[in-house]
Design a protein that fits this description.
- The chain is an alpha/beta fold.
- It has 2 domains: 88 residues, no CATH class; 245 residues, Vaccinia Virus protein VP39 (Rossmann fold).
- It contains 13 helices and 14 strands.
- It has an 8-stranded mixed sheet with strand order 5-4-3-10-11-14-12-13, with helices on both faces.
- The radius of gyration is 20 Å and the shape is globular.
- The protein starts with 6 loop residues before the first helix and ends with a strand.
């Protein structure tokens, strides 16, 4: 019989590791302060109860309001799907996502707004349902120009709906395709978490249990080709943001022109060391360093402090200032890292 581990039992399981226990308790304090600071008392109460029992009464209350619901993202409203166990659940329960990294991202967007004349162009690769599109729009307003890439139909439907609902339909292009290192058809494995769909490692007919996975075929292109066919100069792309579940190297291979552009350029991605071979990790870090980027922010997910999956939304600083620090962090810990780099 499988025993579900609640946050309370997880806390007891790490009680003998005093440094991790202290980190865990600090993180929970930060998260509670964040929710109270964001004026989300219901989310704060729900989070506290969930920490002790594993059940979030505030989230369960929200589920009763219907499948598609609205949550506040700054001054905007995002429609989420309660059938999604991923980002939609997180936003319904807490109202925020990747808090530390998002805060650093907003600072970089503000910097770009002061450094760039005219529109700030953002390439959203795996735009999901539009959370980060609205985060960017909240900073840049009518100066934002978004190229939103999303291959999963259910996500793309909500993405278009959220952009139109908030008045950014004319400032965003939504493309229902994937980015990678080549133009081809690929298979994507679907997840119960809308932000964790992923490119299949191998065909579904390999006989190793793969056939049980639900997959869809999608068209893939390279970032370079996409921009070229739309007459967008790579030098004019100021931001690239993506989270592609271990497919980072392939996406970056196809975006070489943007990475080599003189800047200013900001790249925000999530690295998945557990899903990446050592050589792939090295290639990603080397690519940024060789193209003149510097580290802005590096944040481990809450899992590094022993937090269960449903409650991960805040993040822990990695103590990374240079790329050598990042290499060390990736080699010493297999938890995902939310990374922001920039080129002036």
């Amino acid at each position: 019989m499988t025993v579900t581990q609640t946050p309370a039992t997880r806390l007891r399981s790490i009680a003998d590791d005093l440094p991790q226990l202290a980190q865990y308790l600090r993180l929970e304090g930060w998260k509670l302060a964040c929710l109270l600071g964001e004026r989300r008392p219901g989310a704060a109460v729900g989070s506290t109860v969930e920490l002790l029992t594993g059940h979030n009464p505030y989230y369960e209350y929200r589920l009763e309001e219907g499948r598609y619901q609205s949550v506040s993202v700054g001054e905007h409203e995002l429609i989420v799907d309660t059938a999604d166990a991923g980002i939609s659940r997180t936003l319904l329960a807490y109202g925020v996502h990747e808090y530390r990294s998002t805060t650093a991202y907003e600072r970089e967007l503000e910097r770009l707004a002061s450094d760039v004349d005219g529109p700030v162009r953002i390439l959203e690769v795996g735009a999901n349902i539009g959370y980060f599109c609205l985060v960017a729009a909240g900073v840049l307003g009518d100066r934002v120009r978004i190229y939103a890439i999303e291959p999963i139909p259910s996500n793309a439907d909500l993405l278009e709906r959220n952009l139109d609902r908030n008045g950014y339909g004319a400032q965003a292009d939504v493309e229902r395709l994937a980015f990678g290192a080549a133009k081809q058809s690929i298979e994507m494995e679907l997840s119960t978490h809308s932000n964790q769909h992923r490119v299949c490692d191998s065909p579904t007919s390999d006989g190793g249990g793969e056939a049980d996975r639900e997959t869809i075929s999608v068209e893939q292109t390279t970032g370079n080709r996409y921009l070229e066919t739309r007459n967008v100069d790579s030098d004019a792309v100021h931001v690239v943001r993506f989270d592609v579940e271990g497919y980072e190297r392939e996406v970056l291979d196809g975006l070489s022109n943007v990475l080599e552009a003189p800047g200013p350029t900001v790249v925000y991605l999530e690295l998945h060391p557990l899903e990446l071979a050592v050589d792939a990790q090295s290639e990603i870090v080397d690519r940024f360093e060789d193209n003149g980027f510097e580290v802005v922010s590096a944040v481990w997910t809450d899992a590094a402090a022993g937090v269960v999956d449903e409650r991960r939304w805040h993040g822990l600083e990695c103590d990374v200032d240079e790329f050598d620090d990042l290499r060390r962090a990736m080699s010493e810990n297999d938890h995902s890292i939310e990374l922001i780099v920039r080129k002036e």
